[in-house]
TrEMBL record, chain A:
Family (UniProt): Belongs to the peptidase S26B family.
Membrane association type: Single-pass type II membrane protein
Listed GO biological process terms: signal peptide processing
Biological role stated in the UniProt entry: Catalytic component of the signal peptidase complex (SPC) which catalyzes the cleavage of N-terminal signal sequences from nascent proteins as they are translocated into the lumen of the endoplasmic reticulum. Specifically cleaves N-terminal signal peptides that contain a hydrophobic alpha-helix (h-region) shorter than 18-20 amino acids.
Protein name in UniProt: Signal peptidase complex catalytic subunit SEC11
PROSITE patterns, alphabetized: SPASE_I_1
Source species taxonomy: Eukaryota, Fungi, Dikarya, Ascomycota, Pezizomycotina
Organism: Lophium mytilinum
Transmembrane residue ranges: 12-30, 129-146
Gene Ontology annotations for the cellular component aspect, listed alphabetically: signal peptidase complex
TrEMBL record, chain B:
Protein name (Swiss-Prot/TrEMBL): Signal peptidase subunit 3
One of the GO BP terms on file: signal peptide processing
Entries under InterPro entries matching the protein: SPC3 (IPR007653)
Membrane topology qualifier: Single-pass type II membrane protein
Family: Belongs to the SPCS3 family.
Xref: PANTHER family: MICROSOMAL SIGNAL PEPTIDASE 23 KD SUBUNIT SPC22/23, SIGNAL PEPTIDASE COMPLEX SUBUNIT 3
Lineage: Eukaryota, Fungi, Dikarya, Ascomycota, Pezizomycotina
Free-text function comment from the UniProt entry: Essential component of the signal peptidase complex (SPC) which catalyzes the cleavage of N-terminal signal sequences from nascent proteins as they are translocated into the lumen of the endoplasmic reticulum. Essential for the SPC catalytic activity, possibly by stabilizing and positioning the active center of the complex close to the lumenal surface. Essential for viability.
This protein's record includes keyword Transmembrane: yes
Organism field: Lophium mytilinum
Superkingdom of origin: Eukaryota
Residue spans crossing the bilayer: 12-32
GO cellular component, one term: signal peptidase complex
Kinase found in the keyword field: no
Protein backbone atom coordinates (compact mmCIF):
# COMPACT_ATOMS: atom_id res chain seq x y z
CA UNK A 1 0.00 0.00 0.00
CA UNK A 2 2.67 2.47 0.97
CA UNK A 3 5.34 0.86 -1.20
CA UNK A 4 5.34 3.52 -3.89
CA UNK A 5 8.23 3.84 -6.20
CA UNK A 6 9.83 7.29 -6.22
CA UNK A 7 8.44 7.84 -9.72
CA UNK A 8 4.87 7.03 -8.65
CA UNK A 9 5.21 9.25 -5.63
CA UNK A 10 6.51 12.08 -7.77
CA UNK A 11 3.61 11.62 -10.20
CA UNK A 12 1.11 11.82 -7.33
CA UNK A 13 2.72 14.95 -5.95
CA UNK A 14 2.75 16.53 -9.41
CA UNK A 15 -0.93 15.69 -10.00
CA UNK A 16 -1.84 17.23 -6.68
CA UNK A 17 0.18 20.36 -7.46
CA UNK A 18 -1.48 20.57 -10.88
CA UNK A 19 -4.95 20.48 -9.32
CA UNK A 20 -3.99 23.18 -6.83
CA UNK A 21 -2.45 25.47 -9.43
CA UNK A 22 -5.38 25.04 -11.84
CA UNK A 23 -7.75 26.05 -9.07
CA UNK A 24 -5.54 29.02 -8.26
CA UNK A 25 -5.39 30.09 -11.91
CA UNK A 26 -9.17 29.84 -12.28
CA UNK A 27 -9.61 31.97 -9.19
CA UNK A 28 -7.15 34.62 -10.32
CA UNK A 29 -8.58 34.57 -13.85
CA UNK A 30 -12.05 35.23 -12.47
CA UNK A 31 -10.58 37.97 -10.30
CA UNK A 32 -9.15 39.71 -13.35
CA UNK A 33 -12.29 39.24 -15.47
CA UNK A 34 -14.51 40.75 -12.78
CA UNK A 35 -11.90 43.33 -11.69
CA UNK A 36 -12.51 42.42 -8.07
CA UNK A 37 -9.92 41.19 -5.56
CA UNK A 38 -12.43 38.65 -4.32
CA UNK A 39 -14.95 37.67 -7.02
CA UNK A 40 -16.76 35.03 -4.95
CA UNK A 41 -17.66 35.74 -1.33
CA UNK A 42 -19.56 33.87 1.34
CA UNK A 43 -22.22 35.71 3.35
CA UNK A 44 -21.06 35.81 6.95
CA UNK A 45 -23.83 37.61 8.84
CA UNK A 46 -27.61 37.72 8.88
CA UNK A 47 -27.83 41.43 8.12
CA UNK A 48 -29.27 40.88 4.63
CA UNK A 49 -31.94 38.35 5.54
CA UNK A 50 -34.17 37.04 4.10
CA UNK A 51 -32.42 37.71 0.78
CA UNK A 52 -29.02 36.29 1.76
CA UNK A 53 -28.54 33.94 4.67
CA UNK A 54 -25.27 32.91 6.30
CA UNK A 55 -23.47 30.49 4.02
CA UNK A 56 -24.77 31.73 0.66
CA UNK A 57 -22.25 32.16 -2.11
CA UNK A 58 -22.26 35.50 -3.97
CA UNK A 59 -20.74 36.31 -7.37
CA UNK A 60 -19.34 39.81 -7.64
CA UNK A 61 -18.73 42.08 -10.62
CA UNK A 62 -16.65 45.19 -10.19
CA UNK A 63 -16.71 46.69 -13.68
CA UNK A 64 -19.92 48.68 -13.21
CA UNK A 65 -18.51 51.84 -11.67
CA UNK A 66 -21.86 53.66 -11.90
CA UNK A 67 -23.45 51.69 -9.07
CA UNK A 68 -27.20 52.28 -9.04
CA UNK A 69 -29.40 52.67 -6.00
CA UNK A 70 -30.82 49.34 -4.82
CA UNK A 71 -27.76 47.35 -5.90
CA UNK A 72 -26.11 45.10 -3.35
CA UNK A 73 -22.43 45.95 -2.91
CA UNK A 74 -19.57 44.39 -0.99
CA UNK A 75 -17.23 46.87 0.65
CA UNK A 76 -14.38 46.98 3.11
CA UNK A 77 -14.48 49.50 5.93
CA UNK A 78 -11.43 51.78 5.65
CA UNK A 79 -8.65 50.30 7.70
CA UNK A 80 -10.39 46.99 8.36
CA UNK A 81 -10.38 43.83 6.29
CA UNK A 82 -13.94 42.66 6.91
CA UNK A 83 -16.06 42.58 3.73
CA UNK A 84 -19.63 43.70 4.33
CA UNK A 85 -22.50 42.87 1.97
CA UNK A 86 -25.23 45.53 2.09
CA UNK A 87 -27.61 47.37 -0.21
CA UNK A 88 -27.09 50.90 -1.55
CA UNK A 89 -29.82 53.19 -0.19
CA UNK A 90 -28.48 56.59 -1.23
CA UNK A 91 -26.21 57.81 -4.00
CA UNK A 92 -24.75 61.23 -4.73
CA UNK A 93 -22.33 62.48 -7.34
CA UNK A 94 -20.83 60.21 -9.95
CA UNK A 95 -19.93 62.73 -12.61
CA UNK A 96 -16.73 64.64 -11.96
CA UNK A 97 -17.10 64.31 -8.18
CA UNK A 98 -16.59 60.79 -6.80
CA UNK A 99 -19.68 58.61 -6.51
CA UNK A 100 -20.76 58.48 -2.85
CA UNK A 101 -22.96 55.71 -1.53
CA UNK A 102 -24.77 55.05 1.71
CA UNK A 103 -25.50 51.40 2.43
CA UNK A 104 -27.84 49.52 4.76
CA UNK A 105 -28.42 45.88 5.49
CA UNK A 106 -31.97 44.74 4.71
CA UNK A 107 -32.31 43.23 8.18
CA UNK A 108 -30.79 46.23 9.99
CA UNK A 109 -33.06 48.99 11.22
CA UNK A 110 -30.27 51.58 10.92
CA UNK A 111 -28.07 52.40 7.95
CA UNK A 112 -24.33 51.76 7.94
CA UNK A 113 -23.16 55.19 9.11
CA UNK A 114 -22.01 53.65 12.41
CA UNK A 115 -19.97 50.99 10.60
CA UNK A 116 -17.96 53.40 8.50
CA UNK A 117 -14.60 54.78 9.63
CA UNK A 118 -14.60 57.73 12.00
CA UNK A 119 -15.48 60.90 10.12
CA UNK A 120 -16.67 58.97 7.08
CA UNK A 121 -20.36 59.45 6.29
CA UNK A 122 -20.47 57.84 2.84
CA UNK A 123 -18.64 55.18 0.89
CA UNK A 124 -16.49 56.12 -2.06
CA UNK A 125 -17.36 53.76 -4.94
CA UNK A 126 -13.83 53.59 -6.36
CA UNK A 127 -11.95 53.22 -3.11
CA UNK A 128 -14.14 51.26 -0.73
CA UNK A 129 -16.35 48.99 -2.83
CA UNK A 130 -14.89 45.71 -4.10
CA UNK A 131 -17.82 44.64 -6.26
CA UNK A 132 -21.56 44.42 -6.61
CA UNK A 133 -23.55 41.20 -6.42
CA UNK A 134 -24.79 39.80 -9.73
CA UNK A 135 -25.64 36.20 -8.91
CA UNK A 136 -25.96 33.85 -6.01
CA UNK A 137 -26.04 30.19 -5.05
CA UNK A 138 -27.72 29.33 -1.77
CA UNK A 139 -26.07 27.52 1.12
CA UNK A 140 -23.01 26.14 -0.72
CA UNK A 141 -20.58 28.36 1.15
CA UNK A 142 -21.55 27.18 4.61
CA UNK A 143 -18.50 24.88 4.62
CA UNK A 144 -16.13 27.86 4.74
CA UNK A 145 -18.00 29.33 7.71
CA UNK A 146 -17.70 26.02 9.56
CA UNK A 147 -14.00 25.85 8.71
CA UNK A 148 -13.31 29.29 10.10
CA UNK A 149 -15.42 28.90 13.23
CA UNK A 150 -14.21 25.41 14.12
CA UNK A 151 -10.46 25.30 13.29
CA UNK A 152 -10.18 21.65 14.26
CA UNK A 153 -12.40 20.91 11.24
CA UNK A 154 -9.57 21.98 8.95
CA UNK A 155 -7.20 19.42 10.51
CA UNK A 156 -9.92 16.78 10.39
CA UNK A 157 -10.67 17.42 6.70
CA UNK A 158 -7.00 17.38 5.70
CA UNK A 159 -6.51 14.18 7.66
CA UNK A 160 -9.50 12.62 5.96
CA UNK A 161 -8.26 13.65 2.51
CA UNK A 162 -4.82 12.21 3.29
CA UNK A 163 -6.40 8.92 4.35
CA UNK A 164 -8.50 8.81 1.18
CA UNK A 165 -5.46 9.38 -1.06
CA UNK A 166 -3.54 6.62 0.65
CA UNK A 167 -6.47 4.19 0.58
CA UNK A 168 -7.10 4.77 -3.12
CA UNK A 169 -3.70 3.55 -4.16
CA UNK A 170 -4.74 -0.10 -4.05
CA UNK B 1 -13.79 -1.57 -7.99
CA UNK B 2 -17.29 -2.03 -6.69
CA UNK B 3 -16.55 -1.15 -3.09
CA UNK B 4 -19.01 0.87 -1.08
CA UNK B 5 -16.71 3.87 -1.18
CA UNK B 6 -16.63 3.95 -4.96
CA UNK B 7 -20.40 3.63 -5.12
CA UNK B 8 -20.87 6.48 -2.69
CA UNK B 9 -18.48 8.59 -4.72
CA UNK B 10 -20.34 7.82 -7.95
CA UNK B 11 -23.70 8.66 -6.43
CA UNK B 12 -22.37 11.91 -4.98
CA UNK B 13 -20.78 12.86 -8.29
CA UNK B 14 -24.00 12.15 -10.14
CA UNK B 15 -25.96 14.17 -7.58
CA UNK B 16 -23.77 17.24 -7.99
CA UNK B 17 -23.93 17.02 -11.78
CA UNK B 18 -27.71 16.78 -11.80
CA UNK B 19 -28.08 19.54 -9.21
CA UNK B 20 -25.84 21.80 -11.26
CA UNK B 21 -27.74 21.16 -14.50
CA UNK B 22 -31.15 21.65 -12.89
CA UNK B 23 -29.98 24.88 -11.23
CA UNK B 24 -28.70 26.19 -14.56
CA UNK B 25 -31.96 25.35 -16.32
CA UNK B 26 -34.01 27.03 -13.57
CA UNK B 27 -31.80 30.12 -13.62
CA UNK B 28 -32.06 30.43 -17.41
CA UNK B 29 -35.79 29.72 -17.55
CA UNK B 30 -36.43 33.15 -16.02
CA UNK B 31 -35.30 34.84 -19.26
CA UNK B 32 -38.20 33.34 -21.23
CA UNK B 33 -40.89 34.00 -18.60
CA UNK B 34 -42.96 37.05 -19.55
CA UNK B 35 -43.34 39.99 -17.16
CA UNK B 36 -45.68 42.99 -17.35
CA UNK B 37 -45.32 45.13 -14.22
CA UNK B 38 -47.26 48.34 -13.72
CA UNK B 39 -47.38 50.89 -10.93
CA UNK B 40 -48.72 54.32 -10.10
CA UNK B 41 -46.90 56.52 -7.59
CA UNK B 42 -48.35 59.76 -6.25
CA UNK B 43 -46.90 62.23 -3.82
CA UNK B 44 -49.17 62.86 -0.83
CA UNK B 45 -47.21 65.30 1.27
CA UNK B 46 -43.62 66.45 1.72
CA UNK B 47 -42.15 68.33 4.67
CA UNK B 48 -38.62 69.47 5.37
CA UNK B 49 -37.23 69.68 8.90
CA UNK B 50 -33.86 70.30 10.49
CA UNK B 51 -32.16 67.41 12.21
CA UNK B 52 -28.88 65.77 13.14
CA UNK B 53 -27.44 62.66 11.43
CA UNK B 54 -26.51 61.09 14.80
CA UNK B 55 -26.99 62.26 18.33
CA UNK B 56 -23.35 63.28 18.82
CA UNK B 57 -23.02 65.12 15.52
CA UNK B 58 -22.70 68.90 15.54
CA UNK B 59 -23.82 69.58 12.02
CA UNK B 60 -27.48 70.20 11.39
CA UNK B 61 -28.92 68.95 8.13
CA UNK B 62 -32.24 69.30 6.38
CA UNK B 63 -34.36 66.15 6.27
CA UNK B 64 -37.36 65.47 4.04
CA UNK B 65 -40.37 63.46 5.18
CA UNK B 66 -42.28 62.28 2.10
CA UNK B 67 -45.71 60.60 2.27
CA UNK B 68 -46.97 58.86 -0.85
CA UNK B 69 -49.67 56.74 -2.48
CA UNK B 70 -48.60 53.55 -4.24
CA UNK B 71 -50.69 51.23 -6.40
CA UNK B 72 -48.67 48.50 -8.07
CA UNK B 73 -49.26 45.24 -9.87
CA UNK B 74 -46.01 43.32 -9.73
CA UNK B 75 -47.55 39.85 -9.67
CA UNK B 76 -45.87 38.92 -12.98
CA UNK B 77 -42.45 39.35 -11.35
CA UNK B 78 -43.13 36.28 -9.21
CA UNK B 79 -42.24 33.08 -11.11
CA UNK B 80 -41.03 29.68 -9.82
CA UNK B 81 -37.50 31.02 -9.42
CA UNK B 82 -38.47 34.08 -7.38
CA UNK B 83 -37.62 33.93 -3.70
CA UNK B 84 -38.55 37.53 -2.92
CA UNK B 85 -38.82 40.96 -4.46
CA UNK B 86 -37.14 43.83 -2.63
CA UNK B 87 -39.31 46.82 -3.49
CA UNK B 88 -38.13 50.37 -2.86
CA UNK B 89 -39.26 53.91 -3.58
CA UNK B 90 -36.59 56.51 -4.24
CA UNK B 91 -36.67 60.28 -4.30
CA UNK B 92 -34.61 61.47 -7.27
CA UNK B 93 -33.63 65.11 -7.54
CA UNK B 94 -30.96 67.06 -9.44
CA UNK B 95 -27.64 67.63 -7.75
CA UNK B 96 -26.61 71.14 -6.65
CA UNK B 97 -23.85 70.98 -9.26
CA UNK B 98 -25.63 70.88 -12.66
CA UNK B 99 -22.92 68.72 -14.22
CA UNK B 100 -23.45 65.85 -11.78
CA UNK B 101 -26.04 63.09 -12.27
CA UNK B 102 -29.20 63.26 -10.11
CA UNK B 103 -28.97 62.34 -6.44
CA UNK B 104 -31.14 59.50 -5.18
CA UNK B 105 -32.28 58.31 -1.76
CA UNK B 106 -34.60 55.47 -0.77
CA UNK B 107 -37.54 56.66 1.35
CA UNK B 108 -39.41 53.36 1.73
CA UNK B 109 -38.71 49.69 1.09
CA UNK B 110 -40.46 46.35 1.53
CA UNK B 111 -39.43 42.71 1.28
CA UNK B 112 -42.20 40.97 -0.70
CA UNK B 113 -41.87 37.21 -0.22
CA UNK B 114 -43.10 34.72 -2.78
CA UNK B 115 -45.52 32.05 -1.65
CA UNK B 116 -42.73 29.45 -1.67
CA UNK B 117 -40.43 31.40 0.66
CA UNK B 118 -40.32 30.48 4.36
CA UNK B 119 -41.71 32.99 6.85
CA UNK B 120 -39.26 35.60 8.11
CA UNK B 121 -39.83 38.52 10.46
CA UNK B 122 -38.36 40.97 7.96
CA UNK B 123 -40.99 40.28 5.30
CA UNK B 124 -43.53 42.93 4.46
CA UNK B 125 -47.06 42.43 5.73
CA UNK B 126 -49.46 44.34 3.53
CA UNK B 127 -52.01 46.33 5.55
CA UNK B 128 -55.52 44.95 5.14
CA UNK B 129 -58.14 46.68 2.98
CA UNK B 130 -60.15 49.42 4.66
CA UNK B 131 -57.32 50.12 7.09
CA UNK B 132 -58.44 47.50 9.58
CA UNK B 133 -55.76 45.37 11.24
CA UNK B 134 -55.03 42.28 9.15
CA UNK B 135 -57.33 39.47 10.23
CA UNK B 136 -55.48 36.22 10.73
CA UNK B 137 -52.80 35.01 8.35
CA UNK B 138 -54.59 35.59 5.04
CA UNK B 139 -52.89 38.25 2.93
CA UNK B 140 -55.34 40.77 1.45
CA UNK B 141 -53.73 40.67 -1.99
CA UNK B 142 -51.61 38.14 -3.95
CA UNK B 143 -47.85 38.68 -3.74
CA UNK B 144 -46.85 41.68 -5.84
CA UNK B 145 -50.09 43.61 -5.61
CA UNK B 146 -49.72 46.75 -3.50
CA UNK B 147 -52.32 49.36 -2.61
CA UNK B 148 -51.08 51.97 -0.15
CA UNK B 149 -52.59 55.36 0.59
CA UNK B 150 -50.91 58.17 2.54
CA UNK B 151 -48.06 55.79 3.38
CA UNK B 152 -45.49 57.14 5.81
CA UNK B 153 -41.87 56.80 4.66
CA UNK B 154 -39.46 54.47 6.44
CA UNK B 155 -36.56 56.86 6.17
CA UNK B 156 -36.25 60.59 6.35
CA UNK B 157 -33.68 61.52 3.74
CA UNK B 158 -31.02 64.16 3.54
CA UNK B 159 -28.70 65.33 0.81
CA UNK B 160 -24.92 65.06 0.74
CA UNK B 161 -24.74 68.84 0.91
CA UNK B 162 -27.17 68.92 3.85
CA UNK B 163 -29.55 71.25 2.05
CA UNK B 164 -32.94 70.09 0.79
CA UNK B 165 -35.42 72.90 1.25
CA UNK B 166 -36.77 74.66 -1.85
CA UNK B 167 -35.03 72.28 -4.22
CA UNK B 168 -37.00 71.66 -7.39
CA UNK B 169 -37.55 68.92 -9.98
CA UNK B 170 -37.79 66.02 -7.54
CA UNK B 171 -39.51 62.79 -8.59
CA UNK B 172 -40.52 59.62 -6.75
CA UNK B 173 -39.46 56.47 -8.62
CA UNK B 174 -40.34 52.87 -7.93
CA UNK B 175 -37.62 50.23 -8.14
CA UNK B 176 -37.21 46.57 -7.29
CA UNK B 177 -34.62 43.84 -6.98
CA UNK B 178 -35.83 40.32 -7.77
CA UNK B 179 -33.99 37.79 -5.63
CA UNK B 180 -34.05 34.34 -7.29
CA UNK B 181 -33.77 30.95 -5.65
CA UNK B 182 -30.73 30.43 -7.89
CA UNK B 183 -29.14 32.55 -10.59
CA UNK B 184 -28.78 36.19 -11.46
CA UNK B 185 -30.31 39.07 -9.53
CA UNK B 186 -32.37 41.47 -11.64
CA UNK B 187 -33.41 45.06 -11.06
CA UNK B 188 -36.16 47.34 -12.31
CA UNK B 189 -36.28 47.75 -16.09
CA UNK B 190 -38.07 50.66 -17.72
CA UNK B 191 -37.19 49.30 -21.20
CA UNK B 192 -38.56 46.08 -22.72
CA UNK B 193 -36.17 43.11 -22.86
CA UNK B 194 -37.67 40.39 -25.05
CA UNK B 195 -40.72 39.06 -23.19
CA UNK B 196 -39.97 41.25 -20.18
CA UNK B 197 -42.03 44.41 -20.56
CA UNK B 198 -40.63 47.56 -18.97
CA UNK B 199 -42.35 49.05 -15.93
CA UNK B 200 -45.53 50.85 -16.93
CA UNK B 201 -45.72 54.01 -14.84
CA UNK B 202 -43.74 53.95 -11.63
CA UNK B 203 -42.75 57.63 -11.56
CA UNK B 204 -44.63 60.35 -9.76
CA UNK B 205 -45.20 63.87 -11.03
CA UNK B 206 -42.37 66.34 -10.48
CA UNK B 207 -42.53 68.11 -7.13
CA UNK B 208 -40.55 70.59 -5.07
CA UNK B 209 -39.20 70.34 -1.56
CA UNK B 210 -40.90 73.06 0.50
CA UNK B 211 -39.14 75.35 2.91
CA UNK B 212 -38.79 74.45 6.55
CA UNK B 213 -41.82 75.20 8.66
CA UNK B 214 -42.55 74.33 12.26
CA UNK B 215 -44.53 71.06 12.28
CA UNK B 216 -46.07 68.92 15.00
CA UNK B 217 -43.88 66.02 16.16
CA UNK B 218 -46.61 63.48 15.39
CA UNK B 219 -46.71 64.44 11.71
CA UNK B 220 -43.14 63.26 11.23
CA UNK B 221 -43.41 59.68 12.45
CA UNK B 222 -41.78 57.18 10.12
CA UNK B 223 -42.91 53.66 9.31
CA UNK B 224 -41.13 50.94 11.26
CA UNK B 225 -39.96 48.04 9.11
CA UNK B 226 -39.63 44.38 10.05
CA UNK B 227 -35.83 44.42 10.37
CA UNK B 228 -34.53 42.13 13.09
CA UNK B 229 -31.37 44.02 14.00
CA UNK B 230 -32.45 47.07 15.92
CA UNK B 231 -29.17 47.90 17.64
CA UNK B 232 -25.69 48.31 16.19
CA UNK B 233 -25.61 47.21 12.55
CA UNK B 234 -24.37 43.63 12.19
Amino acid sequence: MLSLSPRQLATQVLNFALVLSTAFMLWKGLSIASNSPSPIVVVLSGSMEPAFARGDLLFLWNRGLDTQIGEVVVYNVKGKDIPIVHRVVRRFGGGSTPLRLLTKGDNNAADDTELYARGQDFLNRKEDVIGSVVGFVPFVGYVTILLSEYPWLKQAMLGLMGVMVVLQRE
Amino acid sequence: MHSALVRVQNVFGFFTTVAFVVATIVALSVVVTPQAPSASVKLRNVQVVRGRPHYYSTKREEYAHIKFDLDADLTSLFNWNTKQVFLYLTATYPSLDPREPPSQAIIWDAVLPSLSAPLHHNQYIHPAKNGKASKGKKAPYPPGEIHLAAQRPKYQITDFSGKLQNRTDAVLELGWNVQPWVGALTWVNYQDFGVWKGLNGGKSKVFQFPEIRKRKEADLKTEKGGEGNRGKPA
